[in-house]
Amino acid sequence: MSANKVDQKVMEIIAEQALLEPSEVTRDSTLEDLGIDSLGLVECIFAIEEAFDITIPFNANEPTEGDFDISTVDRIIRGVERLIADQKG
Amino acid sequence: MKRVVITGAGTINPLGHSVPETLASMREGRCGIGPLDIPDVERLSIRIGGQVRDYDPESRFNRQQLSLYDRFTQFTLIAAREAMAQAGLTFSGELAARSGVVLGNSGGGMNTLDANYRAVYEDGKNRVHPFVVPKLMNNAAASHVSMEFNLKGPSFTVSTACASSNHAMSQAFQMVHGGMAPVMVTGGSEAMLCFGGVKAWEGLRVMSKDACRPFSANRNGMVQGEGAAVFVFEELEHARARGAEIMAEVVGFAMSSDASDIVMPSKNGAARAIRGALQDARLNTTDVGYINAHGTGTTANDKTESAAVADVFGAHADRLMISSTKSMHGHLIGGTGAVELLACIMAVRDGVIAPTIGYEEPDLDCALDVVPNEAREARVEVALSNAFAFGGLNAVLALRRF
Questions:
Q1: Looking at chain A, which residue has its C-alpha nearest residue B221?
Q2: Strands B48-49 and B34-35, how do they pair?
Q3: What Å distances lie between residue B202 and A60, A64, B195, B239, CA to CA?
Q4: Are the CB atoms for B306 and B366 separated by under 8 Å?
Q5: pLDDT tens per residue across span B137-160
Q6: Domain boundaries, chain A
Q7: I need a surface site. Which of A62, B151, B296, B325 has the fewest CB within 10 A?
Q8: Hey, are the CB atoms on B206 and A38 less than 8 Å from each other?
Q9: ipTM computed for the complex
């Protein structure tokens, strides 16, 4: 999957969870901006894992502690790209 | 209203196969959590749990019984036998007709479900054992207890996730308190440490991979456990008339619903249940010396629970002790409140407070005396047991030294 497609797919997943149009999600949006709560975040992570067949290291008790940065949509996309390269490369 | 006392207790859980063994483990701060020994564990990302160890079902039950008893029923019957032996009650005539059994359980026969799904989906079999349904149904344990001990009064199972046992025991208390039943057998059990049971919890991303460290700043989630505890709740005069040994008095309870979120806890809902239990028991906040916390080891629960306790108890919150024994036996889900009531009995009867083990770093959001790592001796008049379930359903029980 090309980098462009990864970024589109991740934004689609996040948009769906936020009940927004994909065009309303920008790379510098935070999940908070988009109104995604902790349960919504867990669903996003699951949907991303399913879409790309990867495993994302994520514990809802310490969402900011792990290697996977969820601070913005852009960070999530970059994290997913890295995991795809590591796990599927 | 009738006074209600506990005249029997029994258990099997990761800390021991009996009440004395369990209390000894709690006193020593022993950890019953370890690597999971279950089929397909290598396909799990969470590989620890509080399993009942050194347990041989065949030494406790015959082949016909085992074809009907899921693991959660086995645990329940083992606990019930110990409780009934201690209480020294036999049920016949009017006593049998009016006494019943109310138990908590969340998952039902998860091991039975798991094994039979494997058989039909994975192994492609088209036939299952005839007793799959009576084995996996959530009320199986309560029914088998009623049959084994001839309890013919009100009997049923309560399922409110992590608060199941506390809701069940509250209900049993109310039945004896109100004069409906002279004796109620109550408590709860859970056995969901099988591949499907752990996998389901894994999905929620709230499980710890290494340890349950309630109230510690570095806590990183809950750890599942399994087992059962069963108690005999008896009307005081009935117990006195036959010279029964009384372990503690049950003096009140309250239930509340957050009516807000399916998984996130609420300070107000928890506080209303704690406050309600005190009111029901006609207690002052300063009467309470010990709280057995729900204390799951998740970020959200421990912070919310600490805030609720601070809210209800004000300045006294800094003087009471609160510990989470889940650090030792894990979270027994529908059976957890029952096993945790043992710690409350130990506090009021023996003056020993079970510790919160694995406590490593103080957390400003949980700034209470959590009895870190080592048990403590203290005279406690009243102990509370908290349970705050997924679904926002809360139940708190109050015990008094007798």
A1: A61
A2: antiparallel
A3: 11, 19, 10, 45
A4: yes
A5: 999 999 999 999 999 999 999 999
A6: 3-88
A7: A62
A8: no
A9: 0.82
